[in-house]
Amino acid sequence: MSNSRFTPSQPQIWSGKYKRVPGDNTAFHVSQVNGQWHPNASRSIGAETAQCNMVASGTSTALASAVIDGKRYLGGNGGGSFLINEFGQVLVPAQNWTADRNDHVAIVGSFSGSLLLHDPFIGNDLVDFSATSHLQLGSVWERPYIGIPYNLSRRNEIYFWGSTSTGNWKSLPPVEDTALINAIRQVRPTGPVRFLVSYGGIVLTKIPIGDLREELWEPRYVTQIDNRRWFSKEA
Length: 235
Description:
By secondary structure, the chain is mainly β. Helix content is 11%, strand content 41%. The protein has a seven-stranded antiparallel beta sheet with strand order 1-7-6-5-2-3-4, covered by helices on one side.
């Protein structure tokens, strides 16, 4: 039995960190599934993309409803994208959100426990997005590639780069996490790196594979954040 739980809250403007990688497959979504609003995410293998629906439950129904409430609070209508950050906070951007409009994001509640998705690539079996016990540093990430992007500079400085209508800003964690930096460098040895931090504190990045004539980027699992050396939870 799933231990997932969603605790809704009244939508309110989110003043903390929010960002997403451009593209249709880099966020969770609420969309119509068999005539009902339902949370889902997309996973791609090569040129093929499949929709991974969240397991149907009271939790998924409440989550979908809260996301729709958040869209309406921000002046929209219906479903759309959302993210769940490393602390389980569910963040909903306005339907006209752009990277320079961080004031167009609402927090609508908190998610905890297993995040179970049906994966059409494996016979629609259930996969726990947040389970990592079977993964090692560098394991191929065979789930939707979703999370808030952070950066590691070529000089090994972790930071978040944010944008608002008034300008850009840079945020640093309170303590340098050398273990996290070393883990990222084991899969991406040189240069600046964009990595994602997702639900459960999961750290992901992509590595180049193939030859120079047809270079592809493959998602890999890195590690999980150490909350003692990470950014503080924002209200």
